[in-house]
Automatic annotation (TrEMBL):
It catalyses: UDP-alpha-D-glucose + 2 NAD(+) + H2O = UDP-alpha-D-glucuronate + 2 NADH + 3 H(+). GO terms for molecular function: oxidoreductase activity. Residues 317-418 form the UDP-glucose/GDP-mannose dehydrogenase C-terminal domain. This is UDP-glucose 6-dehydrogenase. Belongs to the UDP-glucose/GDP-mannose dehydrogenase family. Pathway: Nucleotide-sugar biosynthesis; UDP-alpha-D-glucuronate biosynthesis; UDP-alpha-D-glucuronate from UDP-alpha-D-glucose: step 1/1. The lineage of its organism: Bacteria, Pseudomonadati, Pseudomonadota, Alphaproteobacteria, Rhodobacterales.
Length: 438
């Protein structure tokens, strides 16, 4: 089957590469000439484990190509996926559908008859119907169907998630679109996973409901962490004890500096907006959004305490700026709240991140980038662990202490323990949801 993927970002590129690996002929189209140039040279413009090798394999096999030319790409195609960004619209929290609707307009003019237009982007309820109307209005004679196929992959484990999904969700209006979608995913069927075939609205909402639920779980344990610190409990023990209950599960119960990333912040805001527009306020989600902002602020307050009330002229090392390990994505990362506040208050900030520098250089002016965690600790009065990259999980803590001018560690991912910190002779070890060692 010939498939066109509009948008070669994290989702479009991974989906396109994986579909080509299933054996389909895939053409990825993007508006960004630099991205297409780099992809045409065979270079992956983002950091995603395993993507380079899988992409090269499928380019060589002649099943995968990249272009700026949507018209040429659509020739003979049976399905076109829209995988463009849906960022938060300024001001009101609504998902910005500009890119989706632009792509739909282009498809309307250029697609062949019989095409199935699949929305992979995360979009508010009603968008697939809007896409259908827009295409119909722009090209009355085109024969086409629409389908919703939200994506659940996680950056950093995107290929594994795409190839071994917990479920594939497909929203359709008729059997023809369902058949095409089943055919696209058929090569995966050997691995046995549920395909949830449903209506367009349910498919659209499944995505938001899933992300809002996960954001709620993370925020719940972050709030519990604050209580643990006050009452002398250990949030890791609390999370473990909770997570062993099969009804709760142990995933997304790791306390930290607040959720970030390309999806949770914007999708929770969009769901809250959908609720308001339909006069069904999403009160839990609205609270989660507020509490998460508070979590990031709480981290800053704790750092201020560790710096005796002033960041001015303090040297602070930061380990990790991406919103999680194994990605270069910094969208809405907690680092974007915490580091500018430190720099703005007069601290000298040294930052180390295995993949975050390229993106971070634009987003974090005024910091010094170093390529090694021990350099980040050099002459520092405070070292903050913000992202739990493997590179930061087995540090030689004694060596870190020797490098620092005042050995204070803020471990906001609970990678280490007070016992280890004490043994290494840190003067203070602060973590999340556990009593500080002073
Ligand atoms: P992204 O910003 O990385 O990529 C979007 C790409 O679309 C960009 O390369 C942009 O140049 C391109 N584009 C925009 N308009 C275009 C057009 N008309 N024609 C061709 N290309 C165009 O975004 P992303 O992270 O891949 O997210 C895409 C969608 O998938 C979003 O709705 C997001 O919510 C959803 N999603 C993302 C993730 C994730 O982990 N990133 C996971 C699940 C779902």
């Amino acid at each position: 089957m010939k498939i066109v993927m509009i948008g070669a970002g994290y989702v479009g590129l991974v989906s396109g590469v994986c579909f080509s690996d299933f054996g389909h002929e895939v053409v990825c189209v993007d508006k960004d000439p630099a991205k297409i140039e780099s992809l045409t040279r065979g270079e992956v413009p983002i950091y995603e484990p395993g993507l380079q090798a899988l992409m090269s394999k499928n380019i060589e096999a002649g099943r995968l190509s990249f272009t700026l030319d949507l018209k040429g790409a659509l020739e003979g195609a049976e399905a076109v996926f829209i995988a463009v960004g849906t960022p938060t619209r300024r001001g009101d929290g609504h998902a910005d559908l500009t890119y989706v609707m632009e792509a739909a307009q282009e498809v309307a003019q250029l697609a062949p008859d019989g095409i199935v237009v699949v929305t992979k982007s995360t979009v508010p309820v009603g968008t697939n119907r809007q896409v259908k109307q827009a295409i119909r209005k722009a090209n009355k004679s085109l024969e086409f169907e629409v389908a919703s196929n939200p994506e659940f992959l996680r950056e950093g484990a995107a290929i594994k998630d795409f190839m071994n999904p917990d479920r594939v969700v497909v929203g359709v209006q008729n059997t023809r679109a369902e058949e095409v979608m089943r055919e696209i995913y058929r090569p995966l069927y050997l691995r046995e996973f549920p395909v949830v075939v449903t209506d367009l609205e349910s498919a659209e909402l499944i995505k938001y409901a899933s992300n809002a639920f996960l954001a709620t779980k993370v925020t719940f344990i972050n709030e519990m962490a604050a209580l643990c610190e006050k009452v002398g409990a250990d949030v890791k023990e609390v999370a473990r004890g909770m997570g062993l209950d099969g009804r709760i599960g142990n995933k997304f119960l790791h306390a930290g500096p607040g959720y970030g990333g390309s999806c949770f912040p914007k999708d929770t805001k969009a769901l809250a907006r959908i609720g308001q527009e339909n006069a069904v306020p999403m009160q839990i989600t609205e609270t989660v959004i507020k509490v998460n902002e508070g979590v990031k602020q709480r981290m800053l307050d704790r750092l201020l305490d560790l710096c005796d009330g002033s960041f001015k002229d303090k040297t602070i090392g930061v380990l990790g700026v991406t919103f999680k390990p194994e990605t270069d994505d910094m969208r809405d990362a907690p680092a974007l709240t915490i580091i500018p506040a430190l720099v703005g208050a007069g601290a000298k900030v040294k930052v180390c991140d295995p993949e975050g520098q390229r993106e971070g250089e634009n987003l974090l002016p005024g910091v010094t980038w170093v390529d090694d965690p021990y350099k980040a600790a050099g002459s520092a009065q405070l070292l903050v662990l913000l992202t739990e990259w493997n590179e930061f999980r087995a540090l030689n803590l004694k060596k870190i202490v020797r490098k620092m001018s005042d050995p204070v560690l803020a471990d906001f991912r609970n990678v280490y323990s007070a016992k280890e910190a004490k043994k290494a002779k840190f003067s203070v070890y602060a973590s999340v949801g556990r009593v500080d060692m002073v």
